[in-house]
C-alpha cells in the first residue's frame, strides 16, 4: 500500500511536469543590500513582553487575474518529496522490526522506576538490624573468650591445687609409712594414712589400711563398715553386700549398715527388695520400741525414694516426720533438698533456714551438709543423689 501511494504521488508529479511551464514574472532589480540593517529600527522588546500573535491563515479564492502568483515546479514537488521520505522511513522501520533488529528507543518510553521511600526505609532498617546483630555477635564472642579464659584459669588453678595436695599427701603418707615401718600397729598412723588415701580417691590403697585397722581393732565396727564401703566404691558390690550383711547379723538396726546395704542392692538393680529389707528392719524397731532407730529407718526409707527419683513419695514421708517431731533438723534438711530438686526454690530456702536454726553447733557433719545444700542449689539431680549420704541419719 505504501509503495502504491508513493507511485501515485510520483505519477502525479510526472504528469504535472509534462505540461509546458507557465511564463515566469520577472521581479524588478534592486540594489544589493545587507541581510540585516546596521542599526535596529527599534529597541528589542523585553522578555516580559507578550509574544507576537501567530499569523492567521487566510484563505484566498483562486483568481484568474493576471495579478495572482503562478506556482512553480519546485513548489509542487516539495510536499511530494517530504511525504515520500516519511513513507520510506516507515517502510525501513517496519522491515527492521520484522528482521529482528532492535529498533531505536522511543523517546516516549517511561523512565526506569525509582526506589520508593518505603523500600528505602526497609533497606535502612535491615542494614541497621544487620549491624546490631553483628555487634551483638562480636560482644558475645568477646564475652565467650573472657569466660573461656576465666574457666581456663580456674582449671589451671584447680590442677595446681590438686598437684599441691597430692604432693602434700605423698609427703604425709610417706611420713606415716615411716612411722608404721617402726610400729606396724600404730592405730593413729593407720587412720591418718587411710584418710589421706581416701581424699585422693585411692580406694585400693585405702582398703589395705582399713584391713590393717580391722586387724588392729577387731571389735570396732567402724573399720568393718569402712572396709565394706571401700569395696562398694571400688565397684565390688557383692563383697560389699556380704560385709554389710555380716554387720547387720550382729546389729540389725545399725542405720549405716542398712544404708550401705540398700545402696549396694540399688546399684545391683534388685528393685523392690530394697524397700522390703528396710521395711523388715522398721517393723523390728517398732516391735522392740526402739524409737530412735525407728525414726532413723523411716528417714532412710525416704532417702532411698529420693535416690530412686520418687520425689513425691519422699516428700510425703518427710512431711510426716516433720509433723511427728518438728525439732528434728534432719527432715527439714531432706525436705529442702527434695524441694530444690523439684525447683521449688523459695520453699527449699525456708526449710534450709529452719535446718540452720535447729542444727547444733557441735554437729560433726555440719560442713558436709553445707556442701549438700550448695549442691542442691546448683548441681544436677544425679550429682546430688550420688553425694547425698547418710552420715547424719544416726545423729540427732
Automatic annotation (TrEMBL):
Signal peptide residues on this chain, from the entry's feature table: none
Regions of biased composition (Acidic residues) lie at 119-128, 137-172
> Where is composition skewed (Polar residues) in this entry?
1-15
- Region described as Disordered: 1-74, 104-172
Q: Which domain of life is it from?
A: Eukaryota
| Alphabetized InterPro entries for the sequence | TPR-like_helical_dom_sf
Q: According to the UniProt entry, which residue ranges have a biased composition of type Low complexity?
A: 60-72
This protein is called Os05g0182100 protein
State the organism of origin: Oryza sativa subsp. japonica
Please spell out the taxonomic lineage of the organism that makes this protein.
Eukaryota, Viridiplantae, Streptophyta, Embryophyta, Tracheophyta
Amino acid at each position: 500500500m505504501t509503495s502504491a501511494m508513493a507511485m501515485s504521488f510520483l505519477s502525479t508529479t510526472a504528469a504535472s511536469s509534462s505540461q509546458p511551464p507557465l511564463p515566469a514574472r520577472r521581479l524588478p532589480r534592486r540594489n544589493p543590500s545587507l541581510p540585516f540593517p546596521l542599526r535596529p529600527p527599534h529597541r528589542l522588546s523585553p522578555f516580559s513582553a507578550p509574544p507576537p500573535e501567530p499569523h492567521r491563515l487566510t484563505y484566498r479564492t483562486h483568481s484568474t487575474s493576471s495579478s495572482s502568483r503562478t506556482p512553480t515546479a519546485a513548489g509542487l514537488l516539495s510536499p511530494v518529496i517530504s511525504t515520500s521520505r516519511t513513507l520510506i522511513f516507515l517502510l525501513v522501520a517496519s522491515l527492521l522490526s520484522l528482521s529482528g533488529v532492535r529498533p531505536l528507543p522511543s523517546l516516549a518510553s517511561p523512565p526506569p522506576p525509582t526506589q520508593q521511600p518505603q523500600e528505602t526505609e526497609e533497606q535502612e532498617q535491615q542494614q541497621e538490624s544487620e549491624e546490631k546483630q553483628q555487634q551483638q555477635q562480636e560482644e558475645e564472642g568477646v564475652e565467650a573468650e573472657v569466660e573461656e579464659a576465666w574457666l581456663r584459669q580456674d582449671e589451671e588453678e584447680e590442677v595446681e591445687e590438686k598437684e599441691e595436695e597430692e604432693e602434700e599427701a605423698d609427703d604425709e603418707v610417706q611420713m606415716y609409712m615411716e612411722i608404721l615401718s617402726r610400729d606396724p600397729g600404730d592405730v593413729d598412723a593407720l587412720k591418718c594414712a587411710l584418710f589421706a588415701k581416701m581424699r585422693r580417691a585411692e580406694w585400693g590403697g585405702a582398703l589395705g589400711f582399713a584391713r590393717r585397722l580391722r586387724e588392729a581393732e577387731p571389735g570396732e565396727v567402724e573399720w568393718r563398715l569402712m572396709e565394706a564401703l571401700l569395696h562398694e566404691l571400688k565397684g565390688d558390690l557383692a563383697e560389699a553386700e556380704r560385709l554389710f550383711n555380716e554387720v547387720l547379723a550382729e546389729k540389725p538396726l545399725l542405720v549405716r549398715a542398712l544404708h550401705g546395704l540398700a545402696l549396694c542392692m540399688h546399684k545391683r538393680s534388685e528393685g523392690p527388695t530394697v524397700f522390703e529389707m528396710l521395711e523388715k528392719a522398721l517393723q523390728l524397731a517398732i516391735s522392740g520400741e526402739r524409737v530412735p532407730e525407728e525414726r532413723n529407718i523411716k528417714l532412710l526409707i525416704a532417702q532411698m525414694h529420693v535416690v530412686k527419683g520418687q520425689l513425691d513419695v519422699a516428700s510425703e514421708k518427710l512431711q510426716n516426720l516433720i509433723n511427728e517431731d518438728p525439732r528434728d533438723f534432719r527432715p527439714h534438711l531432706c525436705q529442702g533438698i527434695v524441694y530444690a530438686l523439684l525447683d521449688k526454690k523459695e520453699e527449699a530456702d525456708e526449710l534450709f533456714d529452719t535446718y540452720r536454726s535447729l542444727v547444733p553447733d557441735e554437729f560433726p557433719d555440719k560442713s558436709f551438709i553445707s556442701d549438700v545444700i550448695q549442691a542442691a542449689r546448683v548441681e544436677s539431680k544425679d550429682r546430688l543423689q550420688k553425694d547425698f549420704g547418710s552420715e547424719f541419719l544416726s545423729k540427732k
